[in-house]
Amino acid sequence: MEQYYGTGRRKTSVARVFLRPGSGKVSVNGIEFHHYFGGLVKAVAALEPLRRVDAAGRFDAYITVEGGGKSGQVDAIQLGIARALVEYNGDLRVKLKPAGFLTRDPREVERKKYGKHKARRAPQYSKR
């Protein structure tokens, strides 16, 4: 069976994307894409790389994603799909790279420090 793979990461989310020639069915962790993300408006951005290269109905996407929240998972899936498309056809890189689909966002949550409320938020200063 012909299959193309791409890994996407964002914040603490990791998505493994498998693209197979098909009718455009997308499932995330065994659940239909739109049911998994519910009414999250940002979720449609995850499939944008497929639309950018006019491959929306040509591939079935089987995706496993773990860690983080829904927003980070959407971005991880987007990167994974873009990488899988480049594995399918290297020439698609020319369309995906300028749109920013192949750039891994390196930002991670900063750890909390002792004596602080959050990573940087200090206790309120009291003069007396």
Automatic annotation (TrEMBL):
Protein role: Part of the top of the head of the 30S subunit. The C-terminal region penetrates the head emerging in the P-site where it contacts tRNA.
Keyword rRNA-binding in annotation: yes
Keyword line: Ribonucleoprotein, Ribosomal protein, RNA-binding, rRNA-binding, tRNA-binding
Any one of the GO CC terms: cytosolic small ribosomal subunit
Chain intervals for the UniProt region annotation (Disordered): 107-128
GO biological process: translation
PANTHER family: RIBOSOMAL PROTEIN S9, SMALL RIBOSOMAL SUBUNIT PROTEIN US9M
UniProt gene name: rpsI
GO MF: rRNA binding; structural constituent of ribosome; tRNA binding
A Pfam family hit: Ribosomal_S9
Domain of life from the UniProt record: Bacteria
Protein name as it appears in the record: Small ribosomal subunit protein uS9
Source species of the chain: Meiothermus granaticius NBRC 107808
